[in-house]
Design a protein that fits this description.
The chain is mainly alpha-helical. The chain contains 8 helices and 2 strands; from the N terminus they run H-H-H-E-H-H-H-E-H-H. The longest helix has 24 residues.
C-alpha cells in the first residue's frame, strides 16, 4: 500500500480520537485558552508520549530514520504567535478545525480557508524568510537526548513520569 493511503487511514483514526477525546468541542477549546480546562493539554501530552515511544522504538529497530528539523527561535516564536492568534480568534487549531468540519460545524470552514490562504502566502514569501526570520536563533538539528548527552529512553521515561504527574495533578484539581 502507498503512503498516502496510510496517511488517510491514520488521519481518520486521529480524527476519531479527537472527537472521542472531546477536544473538538468549543467549550474545551475555550477552557484551554482560559487555562481552566486541561482536556486538550492532556490529549496533546498523551499524543506526545505515544509518538515518542513509537518513533524511538521504530528507530531502534531500524525501521525509521530520525530527521529532526532545524531549531530556529525566530521561526518558532513567530509561528507560535501566529498559531496562537489564529486559535484564539477561531477557537480551533488546524486539526480540530478539520474535525469540527467533519462534525458539521461550518464555522470552522472559515478557519480552514484562512489556513490555506496563510500557507499560500508563506509559500510565496518563503525565499525571503529563509535567510532572515527562519535563520534567527538557529541551533541546528538538535534533540533533547542529544543536548543532554544521554540515552533517549532515559529522557522518554522521565517525560512519561512528568506527564503522568501532571495528569494526576490536573485530575486532583478537577481541570
Amino acid at each position: 500500500m502507498n503512503l498516502l493511503f496510510w496517511g488517510l487511514v491514520t488521519g481518520i483514526f486521529f480524527g476519531f480520537l479527537l472527537q472521542k477525546g472531546q477536544v473538538l468541542r468549543y467549550d474545551k477549546q475555550l477552557g484551554a485558552l482560559r487555562l481552566s480546562d486541561f482536556t486538550i493539554v492532556k490529549f496533546m501530552l498523551s499524543t506526545v508520549i505515544v509518538a515518542m515511544v513509537g518513533i524511538y522504538f521504530l528507530h531502534d529497530l531500524g525501521l525509521v530514520a530520525l530527521k529532526p528539523k532545524t531549531t530556529a527561535l525566530g521561526a518558532n516564536i513567530i509561528g507560535g504567535l501566529i498559531f496562537g492568534a489564529g486559535w484564539g480568534l477561531l477557537g480551533y487549531c488546524p486539526a480540530t478545525a478539520v474535525g469540527a468540519l467533519g462534525e458539521g460545524r461550518w464555522d470552522s470552514l472559515f478557519g480552514i480557508i484562512g489556513m490555506l490562504f496563510g500557507a499560500a502566502i508563506y509559500a510565496e514569501v518563503y525565499p525571503a524568510l529563509k535567510t532572515n526570520v527562519l535563520a534567527w536563533g538557529n541551533f541546528g538539528k538538535i534533540t533533547l537526548p542529544g543536548v543532554l548527552g544521554i540515552n533517549h529512553w532515559i529522557v522518554i521515561v522521565v517525560l512519561i513520569i512528568a506527564f503522568c504527574s501532571l495528569f494526576y495533578w490536573f485530575e486532583k484539581k478537577g481541570v
